[in-house]
Amino acid sequence: VVAGYIVQTIQTDKSLEDGTVAFKRGEYAQAISLLMPLAERGNQSAMLLMGIAYAHGHGVAKDKSRAQQLVLGADSAGAGEHFFQIAQRFESGEQTEKNSEEAFSWYLLAGERGHKRSQEILAQAYQTGAFSQQINPSKAAYWREKLSQHPGAH
Question: 9 — phi, psi (to 5°)?
């Protein structure tokens, strides 16, 4: 039983490593074939990468709901950071089509989960109208208040 577990763990590690490398190279079909089974078995790293794949439509049909489900399942405590990273990709156009509205929606998800930098971006967006947002002093104040609740905030 122990030997079987060790072999399965080694195979999982190898599949995760190969899937991650393929994902980073943009070889999404190969990455998905390696990562999907791991994600379905609850591997957090694979779930995160599959979440990013669904968020951007890399090798799978773009599905924001499925992306959020996978990322949240991967790491509830770190979901804000993951959502922030996805937002940054949409904002910059890195590995996906540049889309400020999509970026903003991911920043909202990250900010709602306590991600400090996302909350700063949201406060600024509502103050200045960035990301095609209507200027809204009330929402800007809401996000500034959220920011003030972080440890070390003045």
Answer: -65, -45
- How buried is 97 (Cβ within 10 angstroms: 0-12 exposed, 13-18 middle, 19+ buried)? exposed
Question: Which amino acid is it at 128?
Answer: T
Contact predicate 82/115, CB 8 Å = no
pTM of the model: 0.58
Element spanning 14, H or E = helix 2-25
C-alpha 68/C-alpha 62 separation (Å) is 12
Per-residue pLDDT tens for 54-92?
988 999 999 989 998 888 777 655 667 877 888 898 899
Element (H, E) at 116: helix 116-128
Confidence of residue 4 (pLDDT cuts 50, 70, 90): very low
Torsion of CA 100, 96, 78, 72, to 10 degrees: 90
Of 103, 96, 94, nearest to 130 (Cα)?
A: 103
Measured at the alpha carbon of residue 17, what is the angle toward residues 117 and 82, in degrees to the nearest 5?
15
